[in-house]
Amino acid sequence: MTENKTIVWQNRLIDRVSRSRILGHNSCVIWLTGLSGSGKSTIATSLENELHHQGVLTYVLDGDNIRHGLNNNIGFSEADRKENIRRVGEVSKLFCDAGVITIVALISPFEEDRNSVRSQFSNGEFVEVFVKCPLVECENRDPKGLYKKVREGKIPNFTGIDSPYEEPKNPELVLETNTMSIEDCIKRLIDYLVENPINIFSIKENNT
Ligand SMILES: Nc1ncnc2c1ncn2[C@@H]1O[C@H](COP(=O)(O)OS(=O)(=O)O)[C@@H](OP(=O)(O)O)[C@H]1O
Ligand SMILES: Nc1ncnc2c1ncn2[C@@H]1O[C@H](COP(=O)(O)OP(=O)(O)O)[C@@H](O)[C@H]1O
């Protein structure tokens, strides 16, 4: 972190618990990581839809969309991906503090970067979900025609092809999208959110 002694943290009167009381639920970050085409965006969209209809305030931070705005100066080099994840991590922290169930869909290929984001949250607030799907199946799906372009030599540094993807070692959840239906994945996620450290529907009184 850059040290800047001319900048002083400002305390505020309204905290996250107060906001959660108004909303009627807790907040956390659900961080979907996986190869292109593994199902991150599909799961993020379906999960948001399901939670929204249960009266939960959600927001999806999807890599593709964030790269149209906040991160439109970010490419796909290792350094750029790291900065992409750092920024989205910071934004997810703000959204979570605002009381929103924040669903992140980013390839986020490097374990160190994901762990760095995780380290900024309390136990249970950061839910890492490995959206697991074999590369061959992702390429077969090719929902945006990107793998085809990669094979034609039109996209360099593509994750899983000529840029690495480090699988999570201890994710909270693994969703194997080549064997599970989308509905199964959403059910598994919702069950996790209710049963595990942060039950989103029971407001925790000791988080600040
Ligand atoms: N070189 C390369 N490698 C991987 N992906 C690429 C690349 N170029 C463009 N795209 C498109 O960008 C989306 C990935 O952006 P992310 O911000 O999630 O990537 S990262 O976390 O910074 O690695 C990714 O979206 P998803 O397919 O939804 O994963 C692709 O559509
Ligand atoms: N269980 C599943 N979960 C998510 N997507 C699935 C699943 N099974 C099949 N798919 C399909 O896989 C594709 C995933 O594309 P997408 O969500 O854009 O992936 P990503 O965001 O990881 O690049 C979609 O066409 C989706 O319908």
Automatic annotation (TrEMBL):
Residues 27-175 form the APS kinase domain. Keywords: ATP-binding, Kinase, Nucleotide-binding, Phosphoprotein, Transferase. ATP binds at G34, L35, S36, G37, S38, G39, K40, S41. Pathway: Sulfur metabolism; hydrogen sulfide biosynthesis; sulfite from sulfate: step 2/3. InterPro entries: APS, APS_kinase_dom, P-loop_NTPase. One of its GO terms (molecular function) is adenylylsulfate kinase activity. Its EC number is 2.7.1.25. It catalyses: adenosine 5'-phosphosulfate + ATP = 3'-phosphoadenylyl sulfate + ADP + H(+). SUPFAM superfamilies: P-loop containing nucleoside triphosphate hydrolases (SSF52540). The active site is at S108 (phosphoserine intermediate). It comes from the Bacteria. It is an enzyme of class 2 (transferase). Pfam families: APS_kinase (PF01583). Belongs to the APS kinase family. Catalyzes the synthesis of activated sulfate. NCBIfam families: apsK (TIGR00455), PRK03846.1 (NF003013). This is Adenylyl-sulfate kinase. It comes from Cohnella suwonensis.
